Amino acid sequence: MNKRRIVKEIMDPYMDKNGFILAKYERGDWYYRKEIEGAVLEICISDANGRLHMHIGIFGKGYDVQAEQFMDTLTVPRTSVWDWDYCRKETEEKKEKAYKDTLYDFRDILELNGNEIFEKIVTDYKNRIPNRKHYLLMMEHYDELEQKYSKELHPEKCNIVELWEKIAAGVEEARKHPLEEIEERLVGYVAVMETEIIKRYGGERGNNPDAESCFICNVGKSRDTINFMGRFFLLWKNEDVRDWEKREIEDLYNEH
What we know:
Layout (H helix, E strand, L loop, with lengths): L2 H15 L3 E6 L2 E8 L2 E10 L2 E8 L4 E4 L25 H36 L4 H9 L1 H12 L6 H15 L4 H23 L2 E5 L4 E5 L10 H10 L4 H14 L1
């Protein structure tokens, strides 16, 4: 069975018609990509150990959608999800038929639901918090923001738990304002907290460009990473995490 030829015959017409290009083929995985409103959408057709999958998401950010979620939108599907394990079929002829039928169902899922799926993924990506703007603030203005908000927080006058409580109060106050008015402040709080923890307990800053995330690691005896940017923005969105986040800082303080 010539899998590459089959995928090309069945999937490429849809991809070409809708502006996707085959960006990469690697070990049985086909990665089709298209830029939409500044975000790169990716459809991955994956042949994993004799089972076909289709995943859709933002390139480099993980996959939001799986083909299984949309099987019930097909009026007359050619397969069930059990058939996607094409390698379990008894003969080569049946394996090839299951392989083709699965791809036809993937194509039909995209034809029926693609535009709605793509719009939701891109909208959710653009509305996520923290986002690329916050990541770039951390990468490009870290020292400037750390110095600015240290003058407000006076970290030298408190232990790490007291500093966290000051920041938490500032984050909760920030809920009264729209994100665009307070996002620099939240990133500044992150810079102060990271700097003080590393200063007091050791550790180092790190970042993941693909995920657009920043963190500190190797703090004291711990080998865990701590993503204060994610934590403070989560606290801004949801006060229910306050007690959990405070316990984490108290544990760090008590361990040292």
